[in-house]
Amino acid sequence: MSKIKYVDELVSDVIKDYESRRERRRSYELTWRLCLSFIAGDQYSYISSRGNIENSSKRYFWQSREVFNRIAPILESRLSKLQRVRPTVTVRSYTDSEEDIASANRSELVLGATFERINFPKLINEATIWSESCGTAFYKIQWDTESGIALPDNPQIKVGDLSVEVVSPFEIFPDSDECSDLEDCMSLIHARPLSLDAIKNIYGFEVPEKYTFIPSANFYTPSPSNAIPSALVIEKYEAPSRDLPEGRLIIVVGDRLVYAGNLPYACGENGKRTYPFVKQLCVKVPGSFWGRSVVERLIPVQRSYNAVKNRKMEYLNRIISGVLAVEEGSVNSEELEEDGLYPGKLLVYRQGAALPEFLKEDPLPSSFRDEEEALIKEFVSISNNPDIMSSGESTVRLASGTALSLIIEQDIDKLSHVAENIRCAIKETAKQMLRIFKQYANLPRNLRRGDTKEILLLKGNDITDFDVVLTAESEQTLSASAQRAALLELYNSGLLFNEQGKLPESVRKKLLTSMNFENLIDKGEYDNAGK
Questions:
Q1: First-to-last CA distance in the chain?
Q2: DSSP at 455
Q3: From CA 225, how far away is CA 214, in angstroms rounded?
Q4: pTM of the entire predicted model
Q5: To which H or E segment does residue 296 belong?
Q6: In whole angstroms, how far apart are CA 69 and each of 73, 74, 303, 305, 310?
Q7: CB 388 within 8 A of CB 407
Q8: Average pLDDT by consecutive 10-residue portion of the chain (531 residues)?
Q9: ∠ at Cα 229 (227, 232), nearest 5°?
Q10: SS3 of 188, please?
Q11: Which of 85, 113, 462, 485 is the most exposed place for a label (fewest CB within 10 A)?
């Protein structure tokens, strides 16, 4: 087989595989799009039998179709609580030898400097928005050869650096939607649109016009008129196997093969080559690759809530405006229908006809109020997002601050499983970052962290074995003020001092950093006795 024929078949197979996975995963995409529609306030959309997102229309012209969006504030409240999940990532050595401890400290320096450079908390927020909205989000960890701080003695050389980006679930295509974890997939496709200018800048060629399209946010919805023409970039990752012991990565842009070779990253356990992705879930579904979002569960309740509120508005409008009964031919009904009975209107009716009168309306039934309250409670129950201040009655019944504290703690604990999923994703991302750094950082570079001076260190060989751990203390348990109070209590108890009665420098720095007083770290000596 000629090389050209082999390349053409390889490109064709990758494109066909992508199209097949896209069609197989279509039901999940429709659910994600529906969730995003409800969050945005487009709450009369539904998944039609034709496999599209469509909007229902009014049955009668007078029907009220307002949207009373409770999903968006619930999502914002959950995101605010989950924003506290920012664990401190530390690296622990496997042994007590000075060499291993020094290597662990260097590894921690790499993570700290990289987290600051890439603004990792912002990436966590972005991934959490995707996982809370659609159920799943991904981190993609790569080595950027065009990045990195140049060597001091030769500023023309780029040493490369770690790169982390958040990938939406719309761009990921596993070989099976029933695989629970990324490691269970035999292959994985990352497909995304890139602008034609970006493709020319990155890959150095232009894509034929027939392979270009106008993308959208998830490139399956109607495209905005000002979108930039783009082409599809398909990256197919194949796990190591008997035939491919190092795995394989195939990159296709438009109809052109850009790369076909071994998996580039040995970021798995024991140096195994694997996918440079980390998955973050909202709620794990057994036997499914994809997580489930709380928005999906709230959609039926939101539909019922909109219906109750709109029927209530229609009923109140009917009571306020009234329903006028007139004898046929007694008045100009067309004029009355168009203008209504505005204040001061002169109503002329036929002599001898019955006087027009309003029909009697019963007061608003209590069932409206009861159903509305029941739906609000269901919102709270499904979302695990109660607001203890929303009910004055329940607040008054709380006789002590202890009771309030217990309720707040229970409120936070209901999100503990989601917070644990975020922590697991952060930990795995940190591990892959260190493994990729160890593999590709062949030149020394300057690393700087907020609480350290500039250090000229590191190459990948400076990192040996390591164990990434997170802080044991739950970030959700303590607020910022409570954390400061706990730290001051530890300081006053003397538990932080060494045998000589002095506060170690490393402990002092961590203490000030935890209390948001980093600006005091480099200002003179710290008087342990007097301050």
A1: 79
A2: E
A3: 9
A4: 0.79
A5: helix 294-321
A6: 8, 9, 10, 9, 12
A7: yes
A8: 75 94 92 93 87 79 83 92 84 79 82 89 95 95 80 68 93 93 94 91 87 70 69 94 93 93 89 93 93 93 91 76 68 66 65 69 76 86 66 46 54 78 93 90 72 55 72 52 71 78 77 69 43 39
A9: 115
A10: strand
A11: 485
